[in-house]
Predict the structure.
Amino acid sequence: MKKEIVEDLIMNLKDAGCDEELITQCIKKYNNDDLKMLIKSLQCHRCCLLDKLHEEQKKIDCLDYLIYSLKKKMEEE
């Protein structure tokens, strides 16, 4: 049963974009029943992903503004 849970955990971590090092650390924490630290590691990874998302959103916002400005200029001509 625990093996199935570990396999599911690995699959979920890979799907979440975790690298092999983080996956290994998480599995060790899970196997040592250190769920508090496992959750802390996952929350940290989540924050990193969220920061990247915000950075990409800023780039999209810049492109949206550029597209808007160019369309507005086209209409004025």
User: Anything to note?
Assistant: The two ends are 69 Å apart (CA to CA). The chain has one domain: 2-76.
